[in-house]
Specification:
alpha/beta, 26 strands, 22% strand
Length: 588
């Protein structure tokens, strides 16, 4: 394979656009049907927007916050910001006012691009605490008061830039591989998001590694279906810059509810997913099979059983082999058609994939490959591939990535894909990057085949099944502010949402408990309902992914004597989980 790309990301895009011309590139729903933006159209919009941003004062090195749902304009904005020499700061559409205030203030963003008025409201509410923010470019008309911040129409900026002399090529040529491409904010142990600084080289090297990974799949005219938020590092690299490098088409899914229909329409060949998506699809497939019953259910169960045996043992009897071929035609072909019928790779990342969930799809003939990464690695570190697919592992390190296990069992990696550091946080940078190695915070081992196995997390960050990082201490701190809650521990690693184990305050117990013990109150519906209102109220100060959906009442307080607190009065999270795992798992 060719050496890694060392030019900047925007130069790569314009090279592909020049070669692809009027071929379709980005597909989005319009009036109920998919419509395409050609490579030429996107390139022209990128150039015009970039010149327009420069005319408004956006200069090299400036940070520009980008708040939008997945759509072609997101791609245009990201590339245009970088073409101006500036740094894209993607922000989630679910961010609250406080989230935006932190990102705007910490990054010192000069400008922001936002798609809709609804998404602009929390951003504008935060603008008052971000004195560096001077202008906002809005895709849609806005009536909200922006105060001292100038609001410019997307169309007006494009039109202005389109009438200017074309100097984009010169600006792109001046962007060095080690210049920053983006800040992607990710939560740390303290709960305050840290800005991960990623260079053009880091993301380009990730794209090189991913291309090497996919080279075993007989690549051609590839089609990606983009579902994860482009503000997530996983989708930003694998769902945008990878398909750009491959000259591929990208379809934007509408929602999780329409995903099956979108797959049938797009007929994708490659899709990046998080475990939560597999969980949802598995549940829907199983529900349909259960409703069908009879011979259909029997054949489906045979496909699962035989597919799993073939994967795990590679040994089927003659009778089983004949039956396996039959169910491949009658069952697996139908499942493959539900995924568009052309899928070459379903890559799972962002959080650990449950073995049984992964095996479900492998047994049904879908090419699922589990990978591993962190935003700090742009984000790809390892992944299974066609020639080595151990779904119980996260695969071998990718091309150009070195991995080793430290003395304490921590997984450490190095390579050109690593971040430049955390913005404005030298201490955290020094802790994460030591002697050129990224200390991932994950515990694991590397087997004889070179596959990485993750067995534990050194840090307490919760990674839900959607791949979001959640700092449990922050959520626990917000809940514990409520006077009715004495102690709390949240739980939800690899799960769709958070649950909690709560020790109510003594006064609350006295008022509502009528002299009963915690053990007795744990199953009391009225007491549980009163406490549920407290949890709901506390959740108003949390983001959607941080909200606790269900909880259980601990039968006794967390204490030093029962081993659930340290001598310095910190909760011993693993001890509590070990004791109450069945109770916590029962909340899902």
């Amino acid at each position: 394979m060719a050496a890694p790309v060392t030019q900047n990301l925007v130069a790569t895009f314009f090279e592909r656009a020049a070669a692809r011309g009027d071929a379709p590139f980005l597909w989005a729903k319009r009036d109920g049907a998919y419509a395409a933006w050609s490579w030429r159209r996107v390139a022209e919009a990128v150039g015009a927007l970039s010149r327009g941003l420069s005319a408004l004062g956006v200069a090299a090195g400036d940070r520009v916050v980008l708040v939008s749902e997945n759509r072609p304009e997101w791609v245009v904005a990201d590339l245009a910001i970088m073409a101006a020499g500036a740094v894209t700061v993607p922000a989630y559409t679910t961010n609250s006012r406080d989230d935006h205030a932190h990102i705007l203030g910490d990054s010192g963003a000069r400008a922001a691009i936002v798609s809709t008025e609804a998404l602009a409201r929390p951003l504008l509410a935060a603008a008052g605490s971000a004195p560096e923010l001077k202008l906002i470019v809005a895709l849609e008309a806005m009536s909200s008061d922006a105060g001292p911040v100038e609001i410019h129409s997307w169309d007006d900026v494009i039109e202005k830039g389109g009438a200017m002399a074309d100097n984009v090529a010169e600006k792109i040529a001046a962007i060095a591989p080690d210049d920053l491409a983006c800040f992607i904010y990710t939560s740390g142990t303290g709960g305050r998001p840290k800005g991960v600084m990623l260079s053009h080289r880091a993301i380009a090297y990730n794209v090189y590694s991913a291309t090497d990974l996919l080279s075993e799949l007989d690549l051609g005219d590839e089609v990606f279906l983009s579902f994860l938020p482009l503000s997530h590092s996983y989708e930003h690299t694998c769902g945008l810059h990878l398909p750009i490098a491959l000259g591929a088409q990208i379809y934007y899914a509408e929602s999780i509810e329409t995903l099956s229909a979108n797959m049938a329409e797009a007929q994708p060949t490659i899709m990046t997913c998080v475990p939560r998506l597999y969980e949802v699809m598995r549940a829907r497939i199983m529900s349909g099979v259960s409703r069908a019953g009879g011979i259909k259910k029997s054949l489906f169960e045979a496909a699962l059983r035989l597919g799993r045996k073939r994967y795990e043992t590679n040994q089927l009897t003659l009778t089983e082999s004949l039956m396996d071929r039959l169910v491949d035609k009658l069952v697996r072909d139908k499942v493959r058609r539900r995924f568009g019928g052309r899928m070459k790779a379903l890559v799972s990342g962002g959080a650990p994939l449950n073995y049984d969930v992964g095996m479900f799809f492998l047994a049904l003939g879908l090419p699922v490959y589990q990978g591993y990464g962190q935003t700090e690695a742009a984000p790809l570190i390892s992944c299974n591939r066609k020639s080595v697919n151990d779904i119980a592992s996260v695969g071998p390190a990718l091309a150009g990535v070195e991995a080793r296990i430290a003395e304490d069992g921590e997984i450490c990696v190095r390579g050109d894909m690593l971040m430049a550091g955390y913005w404005n946080d030298a201490e955290a940078t020094a802790e994460a990057l030591r002697d050129g190695w990224l200390h991932t915070g994950d515990i694991g081992h590397i087997d004889d085949a070179g596959c990485i196995h993750i067995t534990d997390r050194k840090k307490d960050i919760i990674v839900n099944s959607g791949g979001d990082n959640i700092a449990p201490q922050r959520v626990e701190g917000v809940l514990a502010l409520e006077p009715e809650i004495a102690q709390v521990m949240v739980y939800g690693d690899r799960r769709a949402h958070l649950v909690a184990l709560i020790v109510p305050d003594g006064d609350f117990i006295d008022r509502h408990g009528k002299g009963r013990s915690l053990a007795e109150l744990a199953s009391d519906a009225d007491f549980h309902g009163a406490l549920a209102e407290v949890v709901r109220r506390a959740g108003e100060g949390l983001s959607p992914i941080e909200k606790v959906k269900r909880f259980a009442i601990a039968p006794e307080p967390f204490a030093i004597d029962n081993g659930e607190m340290t001598p310095t009065l910190k909760i011993r999270r693993h001890a509590i989980i070990d004791r109450y795992r069945e109770t916590l798992d029962g909340l899902y």
